[in-house]
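Worked example 4.2. Below are the chains of a multi-component assembly; read each line carefully before continuing.
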Amino acid sequence: MRLFLLALTAISAFAASPQFTLPDTSGTRHTQQEWRDKKAVVVFYIMTDCPLSNGYVPEMNRIAADYKRHGVAVYAAHADPFVTDAAVRKHAEEFGYTFPVLLDSKLALARAAGAATVPEVALFSPTGELQYLGRIDNRMEDITRRRNAATEFELRAALDAVLAGRPPAVTRTRAVGCSINLQGVK
Amino acid sequence: MKLLAFALTAATLVAAPTFNKDVAPILFENCATCHRPGEVAPFSLLTYQDAAKRASLIALATGKRFMPPWKPEPGFGEFAHERRLTDAQIATLAEWAATGAQEGEGPTPVALKFPQGWQLGQPDREYKMPVSFEVPADGPDRFECFVIPSELAQDVFVGGAEFRPGNPRVVHHALVMLDTTGRAREMAKANNGSSYPCFGGARIGQGGLLFGWAPGSVPPPVEPGISRRLEKGTDIVVQLHYHPSGKVERDQSMLGLHLSGPPTKGVAMMLMLNTNIYIPAGATDYRVKASTTLPQAGELFAIAPHAHYLGKGMKLTANLPDGSTKPLIYIKDWDFNWQGQYRYKDPIKLPAGTRIDLEFSYDNSTANPQNPSNPPKMVRWGEQTTDEMAVAFLGILLPKPEDVRPFQQSVQRQMLETILTGLENFDDLPPEIPPATAAGLKRAMALFDRNRNGKLDEDERVGLMRLLDTLSPR
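Applying the procedure described above to all two chains together yields the following structure tokens:
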């Protein structure tokens, strides 16, 4: 039992503080060190061939444009153990992400947050505590049913709260999209 | 206990479905038409790697019957090329995902060779959309009507037709129509010269629908006996529904026509509609009905119900003169994004005097995630995304080509009566009635509105219809 608790503590400690060194598609290395002087950190989990994830790129870019100037760091992390780095680079260029797209074939950042779906988003504190995990907004009702426009904007609401010094009112929502496959990780 | 656990594990090992033996045949047969490189689906399902990566998504999508996209309920009409998994197949896919998506023993299964290019063979005439159209990265779906001059030296007969999306990532469905009125050409000219936005329809009157295409649909075979006349000077109008993909995309789709001799049978594209739609904000189950009685025996070979984003359920039923009924189609959970044209496996014989009933239901509450208005507002008939429609196209075979004209006249008369019956205001005549006709009709209605209450009461309507009957050509 004690061992179990210890293990649990270890896991949550790990989950609360992602340690990583990952290259982005331009070759620049990123580590958790660069989060320290930020007010908040947004990580979008994406894949090259998930249409729901791709459809969100313009909104991800808008969120980055709206919040970067308030001291928020924004990243995308590839959550696909099967995809090649070359395909990821080509995809990032085609879709025009305006923030670093991290190559994360071991899914370190997805594990850190417990993300299971793309597109899904994690909001971390500068010290790596998970403050929000789930959908970007409620545009997708399910994998084939899309609203013409979202009516709930959970990520933006969580960001606004954190920037105002409050904890987010909603900390978990169900993301709709393609499953992240942890089985494929070697 | 240990023994039981062991037995369970052993049973699982024995029973666990594998890709090679159990899963590949299901995927190849039902999914790979679209889920293969270069086709409409976002990812391929041809190899173990492709499928294993998506195992849980496959289980989810098939379990909820999102995929394969097939909306008609079983037991209400039997359709050709039905893409519906059996409960057993769905269970196999779920179990495969739950047991670790194993590859299994035995030879690597190989998918059938899919025909490349035109599925019906090289067409006699190929048309390209007049321009490469730019689809924005984001925002609501786009609906664009492209106008293609047919450039014919003489009238021809079309025995078959096929649509090929230029950019499968964004083309979500296509309707191919014929315009002999020149109206589409004018609307395109007023817009950019080659196309115009058209969510609800092409606004070129009725009856011009040649065929429709949706992802995964199989082009109807070339059938010279039911060929359609394509008059010299006709414009081909293609309505394309585009889904933004997340980046700016371009599309230039293609259309192929197979020519043949004149038809030996008649083909009536019978339109059923009711334009009297007044859905209160918040209504969860608003109903719209329409009925048409066949003036002549015919064979129903295809059906395509249509509504917009508030549509919920749609049912069409044939009431035969002998008192029996035949279900024609039932869509329990309408999804605008997966509307289709359904062809019957065997045409349904309908005797003269058969009454076809249409009943659609609508959800105009916030519980409908696709409600385009938030908060909901009162919705009426119209072609905008925020309006609604209640329409069904029925393809009916008649014994002779000459039968089509009197058949259509009877059907259109009944449609007009339906429209006039529920009309609350003379100004509410739908845009589907050509402006010149509508103007004349409005004057006639004012004339027959003897008690001047601004609408036609039953006796007044009967009078007007009688007058129209004496005027209409026999």
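Take a moment to check your reading of the output against the notes. Chain B has nine helices and 21 strands. The radius of gyration of chain B is 25 Å.
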